[in-house]
Amino acid sequence: MYTMGVDIGSASSKAVILKDGKDIVAAEVVQVGTGSSGPKKAMENAFEASGLKQEDISFTVATGYGRFSLEDADKQMSEISCHAKGIYHLVPTARTIIDIGGQDAKAIRLDNKGGIKQFFMNDKCAAGTGRFIEVMARVLETTLDEMAGLDEQAEETAPISSTCTVFAESEVISQLSKGTNRNNIARGVHMSVASRACGLAYRGGLEKDVVFTGGVARNAGVVRAVSSVLKTDVIVAPNPQTTGALGAALFAYEAAQKK
Amino acid sequence: MSKVETILSQLKEVAANPKKAMDDFKAETGKGAVGIMPIYAPEEMVHATGYLPMGIWGAQGKQISKARTYLPAFACSIMQQIMELQCEGAYDDLAAVLFSVPCDTLKCLSQKWKGANADKVIVFTHPQNRGLEAANKFLVTEYELVKKQLEAYLGVKITNAALENSIAIYNENRAVMREFVKVAADYPQVISAVDRHAVFKARQFMLKEKHTALVKELIAEIKAMPVQPWDGKKVVVTGIMLEPNQLLEIFDEFKIAIVDDDLAQESRQIRVDVLDGEEGPLYRMAKAWQQMYGCSVATDTKKGRGKMLINKTIATGADAVIIAMMKFCDPEEWDYPVMYREFEEKGVKNLMIEVDQEVTSFEQVKTRLQSFVEML
Fold this sequence. Notes:
- The complex is a heterodimer.
- By secondary structure, chain A is an alpha/beta fold.
- Chain A has helices spanning 38-50, 79-90, 130-139, 144-152, 165-178, 182-203, 220-230, 243-258, and strands at 2-8, 13-19, 23-30, 57-63, 75-76, 96-100, 105-110, 116-121, 210-213, 234-236.
- Chain A contains 8 helices and 10 strands.
- In chain A, a hairpin with a 4-residue loop joins β6 and β7 (105-110).
- The longest helix of chain A has 22 residues, at 182-203.
- The radius of gyration of chain A is 18 Å and the shape is globular.
- By secondary structure, chain B is of the alpha/beta class.
- In chain B, the strands form 2 sheets. A 4-stranded parallel sheet of chain B has the order 2-1-3-4, with helices on both faces. A 4-stranded parallel sheet of chain B has the order 6-5-7-8, sandwiched between helices.
- In chain B, α3 (43-49) links the parallel β1 (33-36) and β2.
- Chain A binds chain B through residues 65, 76-81, 104, 115-116, 118-119, 121, 123-124, and chain B through 344, 354, 359, 363-364, 367-368, 370-371, 374-375.
């Protein structure tokens, strides 16, 4: 039996096809999100990669910001439940999940059976999210992918506040005009994101293992920053962009079995 | 349309159109209306004058612009909206405004009313050291001043007999609303979260005797129906207010029934009655403030609100508590960490959502509520 999970985020669309609730036969990411052609493309790419067709899929669960806009979905579930499900499947020792996506950040506490004990989300603010890094990368005249490289070469951390993206952007500009090294600013940006997201994790009470997921977990600079703020090792989820879609596909498998 | 739907439609009409409710009242009685600012006021005194007490609790989804001149960005959105509406003259038809000042923002706002009736704003203070008899005496003195000013502005003498009559009408309305809360909890299929709020909100813009009659009729109609099992979740909500309807519609969409509340705009208004007794009406009204409990603006050194909410979840069989946090409301934010710790210690599932009257997009709240339902 094949089931599908589609995670339609603000900045990217992800699709996972699962065989018998265990084997990932396709996991595709398209870097455009809700309201775009991204969700369809991610699904098409997943079909192409697996050699399957829509009619082969027994059940589809949509998640993410655009979950209610996918016509092919049999059910919608929140990304918090799906990330928890996907992460627990991949890392059963996970008790705290930090998920930083394009426009929001979440901390999720799990019990030892993978159930959600508590969760916290950022408020209506881009600080502490992928969008924050994107804005700062533009000011630093670099790309998102190169931010981690700059951070790696930093000798110290330039202080960048985590209160507001607009204020932080002007801080970055004033650091640049003072002649602060770009590498140090990149590290400061990552620390800013980490301190904001880790604030959410502290609210739920931190318990190991800590797993970091979402698109921002691909940035090694933020991973280092999160680990340093939390003063603990952080496990980066395998293929962190697709854990929500994986969780959705797992829920889809459970639903298909009940049909 | 069923009788239940007809009554709910009447109440929703009033809740959605306060200006029309006031104009209709004026046309019918020849008398005007008196604004009642949040959170507590001796409304019975206004009722005793024959004027219509009109609740003032801001507006929904209105863009703030002029109010920025007078209030900082971190003032709560109710006060921002009220200030904006004042600047636009929305309250100019009110004959007077009763203004209690239990928080810092209310204190500031009370000193800069911008409506045409700025000279008819009646400011009074609730004593916060509520355990003392001196507090009652102080509040009686405050109420005497309120009475005197109301009489002067409205040109009506408030007699003890009229006040006693109004107290009885208000006590009856509070009792009927407490019963309504239980009925709404038993019949979530009949009373949605949106309906429940409309029944509460309408009481701010109607004479209480008329509201009581409608709600009594509504209760009787609903109780004649069989109680059906509820396959959704049940919650107790707490906070200043839970609006607008788009937010409540998310509760309905995910089958989250509100089985009890501790909202300042709703059940806190009906929690405490003015008791009978030998003393005069002003003293007994003052005593009601002393008996108030579980409210962020009524000082409670024992911090009993969390326990009260836990007890409510037990009594109603609720699955969780939802904290509707009014953005930038200091008193509510100070209560939250204490309550949160108690909920966690007792294993009471809880979720905080933010309420901001200026917001028009609710996707993030929708995600939180859906996740919460899935978690439960």
